[in-house]
Amino acid sequence: MSLAVVNETTVTTFVEDRKAFENCVEECFEMLDADGDRVLSQSELREGFCKIMSLGYGSREEEKIDPLFNTIFNRFDEDRNGSIDPQEFRCLIRELMFAMGRGFGNSPVLVVLEIDSLLMKAVEHEFGRI
């Protein structure tokens, strides 16, 4: 884990750098795709999603987190095949990153981030490391 200062600009600049963002999203997708079939099941998404989104580990109880994943699948599984493909995953992450950026606003916010999280990638992007 690492301590970082982020704001809306940190996140939006990263997401709007299409090449850097898509490369990072692809890395995350591959990390979550445990069976290598190029789609994410609900269980694959659940296993690593909190880490890549820096959502913490405090409430990983199924009854608390299942509604989140049900909502994700209802919203982003466009072809309704019960899995998230790379394009659907990219749309999901893009929307969530912009939402987090809006939540931070323009004031700097001190946060603790997972090293492999997309927010940490946004911080690294801001400092020209990716």
From TrEMBL:
SUPFAM superfamilies: EF-hand (SSF47473). PROSITE patterns: EF_HAND_1 (PS00018), EF_HAND_2 (PS50222). The keyword Calcium applies. Residues 20-55, 64-99 form the EF-hand domain. One of its GO terms (molecular function) is calcium ion binding. SMART domains: EFh. InterPro entries: EF-hand-dom_pair (IPR011992), EF_Hand_1_Ca_BS (IPR018247), EF_hand_dom (IPR002048). It holds the Pfam family EF-hand_7. Keywords: Calcium. PANTHER family: CALCIUM-BINDING EF HAND FAMILY PROTEIN (PTHR34574:SF12), CALCIUM-BINDING EF-HAND FAMILY PROTEIN-RELATED (PTHR34574). This is CALCIUM-BINDING EF HAND FAMILY PROTEIN. It comes from Salix viminalis (Common osier). The lineage of its organism: Eukaryota, Viridiplantae, Streptophyta, Embryophyta, Tracheophyta.
